[in-house]
Amino acid sequence: MSVVRQVPPSSPSLSADASLPFCLELVMRYQLTPIFCRPWTLNGLSLQLIESHYENNYGGDLRRLNAIAEKLESLDFANTPAYIVNSLKREELIALNSTLLHELYFASLAFGDGRPTEMLARALTSDFGSVDRWRDEFVAMANGLAGGSGWVLLVYVPRDRRLINQYAGDHGQAVAGGIPILALDMYEHAYHIDFGANVKAYVDTFIRNIDWNAVQGRYEDASKLEPPRPLVQKEFADLPGVAVEDVKAMLDEGKPVQFIDARPRHYISRTQDIIEGAVWRDPERVQEWARELSKSDPVIVFCVYGFHVGCSTAAALREAGFDAKYMKGGHSAWKAIGGATKIHT
Ligand SMILES: [Fe+2]
After folding, report:
1. What spacing in Å lies between the alpha carbon of 157 and ligand 1's midpoint?
2. What is the SS3 assignment for 261?
């Protein structure tokens, strides 16, 4: 599906010297994507089923999406009640996701032996334990939608650089930032003509007809995407930090860690909690309290959010010869992972 902008029939035609005002009157149109699979080659899925699905359900949702887009374009948002705007935007989300997922569904099917390519087999084994384990979960999720409706998707998550199976109870549910590379439509219209209520037979047939070469192409494209940019503190780029989960694990295991809360004095004076096992020290007076520390055990220091105070303190300690690191995300990160705190006295 691609998006084009069209001039409404009533609008004047574009002219080079007056393009900008007229651009604002353009109406967005989503264009149909031709069916990707060759329906006559599929094993166990009838032409009637695929055609009805493509023409009535995919096509219907595309037409609905364009009608919604047109309606939205016509709205004067400043003077339209919020419930009308919200309901149209909600419908737009459902229709847009439905068309995107249907296009993926039709691009997930081909005649073949149902076996993943070598690259996909390696990826599935790495992320699920084995191809069988992936298939068992995928099929169980699909069969679990018997009598209901929804989608089962194989999704690449760039942040984690891995594949997951995702359930979507309706068209609006999707993993944010995830890239679906395989889609199984579990709405009744996707199978009823051929399979009646026999969901299991439909799911087995789908699995047999997966176009693994196409899935691999999408996987290769998706896995090239960089994960979301991590926080980089250029001024402390060389300073070693420790993830808050790792700090908690060290403490839980009873490892000898000197755990220093270096939140600024003005902050600590109006806060009520302190991390259990941490000792507060004034970051303004590092040279004084550093003498109490042992050089043989590691020091982990943190501030409120893990920015400059904790980093500066850790840097000062390292300069003084301590094995000091800062805790990424600071006190807030500790609380965000459910780490224990106590009343600060
Ligand atoms: Fe469908």
Report:
1. 24
2. strand
Judge whether 141 lies within some domain. Answer: yes
CA of 268 to the centre of ligand 1 (A): 56
What value, to the nearest 5°, has the Cα angle with vertex 124 and ends 120 and 127?
140
Of 270, 249, 269, 212, nearest to 334 by C-alpha is: 249
Give the count of domains, the chain.
Answer: 3
Q: Which residue ranges in the chain fall short of pLDDT 70?
A: 1-2, 4-28
Q: What tens digit of pLDDT does each residue of 61-119 get?
A: 999 999 999 999 999 999 999 999 999 999 999 999 999 999 999 999 999 888 999 99
Tell me how far apart the alpha carbons of residues 92 and 115 are, in angstroms, rounded to a whole number. Answer: 36
Strand partners, 28: 5
Is the separation of the CB atoms in 87 and 229 below 8 Å? no
How many angstroms does the Cα of residue 166 sit away from the middle of ligand 1?
17
Are both 244 and 334 inside the same structural domain?
A: yes
Closest CA relative to residue 293, chosen from 326, 248, 323: 323
Determine the residue type at 51: E
Residues 99 and 162 in one domain: no
Best CA proximity match to 178, nearest among 151, 196, 144, 207? 151
Domain extent for 243: 234-343
- pLDDT on residue 148: 86
